[in-house]
Specification:
Pfam families: Acetyltransf_1. One of its GO terms (molecular function) is acyltransferase activity, transferring groups other than amino-acyl groups. This is N-acetyltransferase domain-containing protein. Keywords: Acyltransferase, Transferase. With 154 residues, this protein is an alpha+beta fold. It has one domain: 3-Layer(aba) Sandwich (Aminopeptidase). A seven-stranded mixed beta sheet has the order 1-2-3-4-5-7-6, with helices on both faces. Strand 3 and strand 4 form a beta hairpin. It is globular. It starts with 5 loop residues before the first strand and ends in a 5-residue tail after the last strand.
C-alpha cells in the first residue's frame, strides 16, 4: 500500500529521537541509543525506516554476516499510530530486496508466539516455521524462528 506519503529509506543519525521513541514501545529487549547508533553505520546492517507524511513511523533492522548467505531480520517496529498502513510489509519487502542485493539466499527472523499480527504478516509473505523457541525472550516468552528462501534479484 505504498503511496507518495510513505517512503522506505536508510536510517540516519538524526532519526535517533524517533528510533528511541519506537524502541520505548517494548517492555523488554529495547535497543539503547548507543546500539542504535552503531547499527545505523554498521556495514553488516541494513537499518531501514518507514517515513509516513514526513515522520518516522516504523523501522526494521536486518543483519548479514560474511560467512553465510542467510540474512536475519533482527527487529521490526511500527508505531501504533501507523498500524494498518502496510508499513511493516513495506519494510520487510525492502529488507528482502536488500538481502538479495547482498547475495543472500534466505531470510530468517524470530517472532513471539503471541504476536499474531506479525505472524500473519510473515505467513502472507512466505515465511515458514523453522523451529519453535521455548522461553526465547527476556521475559521467558515463547518464540518461533521463521525462514523464507529468497529468489535471486532479477
Amino acid at each position: 500500500m505504498s503511496d507518495r506519503q510513505t517512503r522506505i529509506r536508510r536510517a540516519r543519525f538524526d532519526d535517533l529521537p524517533a528510533l528511541l521513541q519506537l524502541e520505548s514501545l517494548f517492555q523488554s529487549d529495547a535497543m539503547t541509543r548507543r546500539t542504535l547508533r552503531r547499527f545505523i553505520s554498521a556495514p553488516n546492517a541494513a537499518f531501514l525506516v518507514a517515513e509516513h507524511q514526513g515522520r518516522v513511523m516504523g523501522n526494521l533492522l536486518m543483519l548479514t554476516r560474511r560467512d553465510t548467505t542467510l540474512a536475519r531480520i533482527y527487529s521490526v517496529i511500527v508505531s501504533p499510530a501507523a498500524r494498518g498502513l502496510g508499513l511493516g510489509r513495506e519494510l520487510v519487502v525492502a529488507a528482502e530486496n536488500e538481502a538479495r542485493q547482498r547475495g543472500c539466499s534466505a531470510m530468517a527472523l524470530e517472532v513471539r508466539v503471541d504476536n499474531t499480527v506479525a505472524r500473519t504478516l510473515y505467513e502472507r509473505l512466505g515465511y515458514a516455521l523453522q523451529k519453535p523457541l521455548p522461553g526465547y525472550y527476556e521475559d521467558e516468552g515463547d518464540g518461533l524462528r521463521l525462514r523464507k528462501p529468497l529468489r535471486p534479484a532479477a
